[in-house]
Amino acid sequence: MEIARAVPVRDEHLTDEYIHHKVQEALQAAKRREQRENREGRESFFPVFVSGWNIAASLLIIAGLCFALLRIYNHTQPAATAGQPSRLTTPALKEVANTERPFKYVQLPDGSSVVLQRNSTLKYPRAFSSAKREVYLTGEAFFEVTKNPDQPFFVYAGELVAKVHGTSFSIRAIAEEKEITIAVKTGKVSVFTEQASPTLLLTRNQQATFERAQARLVRSALKSSALLNIPIENQEFTYSETPAAEVFDALGKAYGVNIAFDRNSLAHCSITATLGDEPLENKLKWLCTILEASYTINQDNITITGTPCD
């Protein structure tokens, strides 16, 4: 027990010097005890005992240090609620703020689309981890998330967290308001708070409202077809023999982007397609496949190039 007490088990910085010092201190204690027992006339028994004592001392020291390291590791791990994701700890987040426009288009690293309302901010990593995709919203935004069940998508908005199953939805999370609201246009969204409240599963035309004063999360049918009153919330993106120029003009207005194309080249082109709730880039891929054209994206400027339709 003397040697066990010589190795303090508390949360310290266990440097190599500290460990070496404690090992030497414990061995010195063992030697002093050996000398004391020699003086008491136990020479005939002690040679065998010394070897066993040194081994026991070393094992006790190693066990004590391992236990201390385990305690330090456990204390430094962030506490997370069972079944809930933790917020990003990496400081390498890109921030996009919309301070001037009625709404602003943001393309996420996975191709997902975000239409950010004025006076709103979105933070996200420059590259998502392989395990999950996490973004942070302050204000209002409409999302179209790229479907990937192996890499779940989380939106943190004030006290609420939305786990997205590949869908389109709106979030209103303004700091000074009494409520946070998430409204689903298509697909499914799981909504919960970071205080481990019950999870609500929202489907098409449903919304969840978090009442801050009561810390209560309530599900209901959509009170309005447009939570944020922006064009994209009401558009189905379904076209039947629609002139290509009209399609690109509609996309530009819906996402708040500038789509440049040669109107003369597309004058005789028409589109029949249902583009649905896919992110903008997926819509562009489908349209350009139909038109045998190509596109480039530079932030919120898009250029379409191709040959004239017959």
Summarize the structure in short:
With 310 residues, the chain is α+β, with helices and mostly antiparallel strands. The chain contains five helices and 18 strands.
Number of domains: 3
Q: Which second-level CATH architecture of the largest domain applies?
A: Sandwich
Helix/strand order: HHHEEEEEEEEEEEEEEHEEHEE
Shape: elongated
Mean pLDDT over the full residue set: 80
Residue fraction in strands: 25-35%
Instruction: State the CATH topology of the largest domain.
Output: Jelly Rolls
Task: Please identify the top-level CATH class of the largest domain.
Answer: Mainly Beta
Total number of beta strands:
18
Alpha carbon gyration radius: 32 Å
The helix/strand class is alpha+beta
Quickly count the helices.
5
Uncertain residue ranges: 1-13, 42-50, 66-86
Largest sheet: 13 strands, mixed
How far apart, in Å, are the first and last alpha carbons? 93 Å
Describe the protein:
The structure is a single chain. By secondary structure, this protein is α+β, with helices and mostly antiparallel strands. The chain has three domains: 2-76, no CATH class; 93-221, Jelly Rolls (Sandwich), CATH 2.60.120.1440; 235-306, Phage tail protein beta-alpha-beta fold, CATH 3.55.50. The protein has helices at 2-6, 16-39, 46-76, 244-255, 280-291, and strands at 93-98, 103-107, 113-117, 120-125, 133-144, 153-157, 160-164, 168-173, 179-186, 189-193, 200-202, 206-211, 216-221, 238-243, 258-260, 270-274, 293-298, 301-306. The strands form three sheets. Strands 1, 2, 3, 4, 5, 6, 7, 8, 9, 10, 11, 12 and 13 form a 13-stranded mixed β-sheet that branches. Strands 15-18-17 form a three-stranded mixed β-sheet, covered by helices on one side. It has a two-stranded antiparallel sheet with strand order 14-16. α2 runs antiparallel to α3 (46-76). The termini are far apart.
